[in-house]
Amino acid sequence: MQKYSGETRILVATDCIIFGFDGFKIKLLVVQRGLEPEKNKWSLMGGFIQPSESPDDAANRILELRTGLKNVYMEQFHVFGRPDRDPVERTLSIAYFALIDIHKYEKQLSEEYHPEWFLLNEMPELIFDHAEMVKLALRQLRYKAALHPLLFQLLPEKFTIPQLQALYEGVYQTKFDDRNFSRKLLSTGLLVKLSEKDKLSSKKGAFYYQLDQSHYEENFESFLNLVPNPEKFF
Asked: pLDDT-based confidence at 107, cuts 50/70/90?
């Protein structure tokens, strides 16, 4: 096999930042690292890309291996390549973020690497440059969610408008005006109102909605902006 002579080999890994929504709060999934250095410390889901794999294939394989999760929404967003980012060997990391409904996948989650969900403002200390990865992933998520109905990937099959507002407020770490948010959301045509109400959150109750999947796909590139002044979050 022909090789480029005189060139130094560099390892390539993938890391995945998994955002989840439990119906009330946006959270981050981390695991305990299974090898030295920094063994048993909190880490993102990561591993090395094999010669026969594409980055996407590796990311999906590693995600399933580390957590048991599969068939989740995942998107590549950045390459981290600072020369000293890994103390063992020179390693590039191709980073992805994933979006899941926590309750939908909680029974699928493997306990082997002791996964745990943390609120974004209660994130533990992470190894290497993983905190930087989370920060940039959240910035990218905010950018995409201001343009597309991306956060709907985090919702259960049926949900209330207050739940959806709580999701947006959690991602952007801010408070939206209830009336304006509801009005803008309903004007998108993305939601189908159900006759059933959620009676647990208030006496009056809030109607459940479902996502109109056909309109979601049609309007993905022309989503009405729900986030006022999104530039301040990037």
From this structure: confident
Task: Name the pTM for this structure.
Answer: 0.91
User: What's the residue count for the chain?
Assistant: 234
Q: How open is the CA angle 117-140-70, to the nearest 5 degrees?
A: 50
- Buried b / exposed e across 74-93, counting CB within 10 Å, b at 16+? bbebbebeeeebbeeeebbb
What would the DSSP string read from start to end of 108-141?
T---TT--EEEEGGGPPP-STTHHHHHHHHHHHH
Which CATH class, in words, describes the domain spanning 150-233? mainly alpha
Amino acid at position 97, single letter: F
CATH of domain 11-147: 3.90.79.10
Q: Convert the pLDDT of each residue in 56-84 to its tens digit.
A: 999 999 999 888 898 899 999 999 999 99
- The residue ranges of every structural domain in the chain are 11-147, 150-233
CB 45 within 8 A of CB 62: yes
